[in-house]
Every structure is written in structure tokens, then in C-alpha cells.
Amino acid sequence: MNNDIPYKIEHSPSYASLILNIPANQTVLVEASAMAAMDYCLKMKSKIKGGLLKGVGRMLGGESLFINEFTAEGRDGELYISPGVPGDIQHYYLTEQCNLMVQSSGFLACSYGIELDSKFQGFKGFFSGESLFLLRAIGTGDFWFSSYGGIIEMAVAGDYIVDTSYIVAFEDSLDYSVELIGGLSFNNLKTGIFGGEGLVCRFGGEGRLWIQTRNINPLLNFLNPFRPVKSSD
């Protein structure tokens, strides 16, 4: 498998962490707040990818992504990266022939030359609570994404359906559309709202797809009754 930056993935798949050995004078982009430890020679700089969009423009045009840049000054530097939720990490080597679509919460790290752009996905958040946006990774180099739970890689050839809450990433050689499970009808709309099954993504064509083994929304719903609330007295 191609890679420009030496790396190791440890403690996979439940509590995976990523260790990068950044070559001297090279830079990597990392999800904000994901750095766990680093060599002293690494210098960090924070920035925003994709611009700062507000209000309606943010809803319709994309979302900003806060990213930290780590540069190895003068010598190789080791960087430990931990995702925000327990789960797995996957490496993908981007080429000009194939781009990668990733859930915005799934971005973990990438080579400096990778361009990250947001793509409007539709109002799937109404059903699943997921982000409205996908990130599109373009360019050539290393890319790492993370999940909640383990990651399963699938080779798609033809039609395939995945619940939107389980999608982690897919190659843009795949066609995709978001739709109500079973089609658009009052009964299916009712099922989506009250039955826990809502929007699915229908894939077509050929390419690879990665899904996660867990959906974080049922966990959040389970924990919600236990959260502290302010008394009205």
C-alpha cells in the first residue's frame, strides 16, 4: 500500500490511535484537538479550511473545518493522534484518479497537499442527527479517517444501500443519492420519525465503501435521561 508518511495504527479497532513519523520539514493536517503527544521539534499552527461561513450560507454552502498544522522542523518528529470517540482508524492513499468522500466527523489527518472541501448532502440530519455535510478529499497523498466502532470495508459493484448514520467514507467513483427507506410516503415518513429508521444512502457503480459498526445516536439517546438538568425551583 502506498504511503508518503510512515505511520502505525495501534489499539484497533476499539480504541485506535494513530502514530505519525513526520519527515523533516514536512507538514501534516490534523483534526483540531486530536493531538495526544508529540516530539519537541514539531511546531503547531491552527487554521480554518474552507472559509468561515455563517447563517444561511453555512447551511447551504458548506461548513468550516478547524485544523491544526504540524511541521517537523529540522528533523523527523513523532506525533500521537487520538480521535474524539472510541473506534477504528483507516488509511487511504489518495490519487488524482480517485477522490474520497468522508463524513465531516470522520476526518482525522492528511498530507499537507490534500485539499479538503465540503459538499452539501441534504437534510438527513432531520432524521439521524448526523452532520449535513460530507468532506471531499482531493489530491495526492495520505489520508486517515476514523469511526465510532470498527470499520468495515466493502467493494461495491452495482446497487447497495446503507443507513446514513453508518457511512464513514466512500470513493467518489460511486454514484449516491439520499432517500427515505422504502421510498417517499406518509407511512415511510412516520417510520423514519418514530421507528428509528429514516434516510438511507443508495450507492451505484463500482468503488470502495467504509461503514462503521456502531451508530452514536442510540448511545446519545440512552444517555440523555441521565444528564444533569437545572432545577426549576
Description:
- There is one protein chain.
- The protein has four helices and 18 strands.
- The chain is mainly beta and 233 residues long.
- The chain has one domain: Double-stranded beta-helix, CATH 3.60.160.
- The strands form three sheets. Strands 9, 11, 12, 14, 15, 16, 17 and 18 form an eight-stranded antiparallel sheet that branches. It has a six-stranded antiparallel sheet with strand order 5-6-3-10-13-8, with no helix packed on it.
- Strand 1 and strand 2 form a beta hairpin.
Structural features:
mainly beta; 8-stranded antiparallel sheet; Double-stranded beta-helix; 233 residues; 6-stranded antiparallel sheet; globular
Secondary structure tally, helices: 4
- The count of strands amounts to 18
Specify the CATH class. Alpha Beta
Kindly name the structural category: mainly beta
Q: What is the assembly state of the chains in this entry?
A: single chain
What does the overall shape look like?
globular
Q: Give the integer mean of the pLDDT values.
A: 82
Which fold name is given in CATH as the topology?
Double-stranded beta-helix
Largest sheet: 8 strands, antiparallel
Distance between the termini: 62 Å
> How big a fraction of the residues is strand?
over 45%
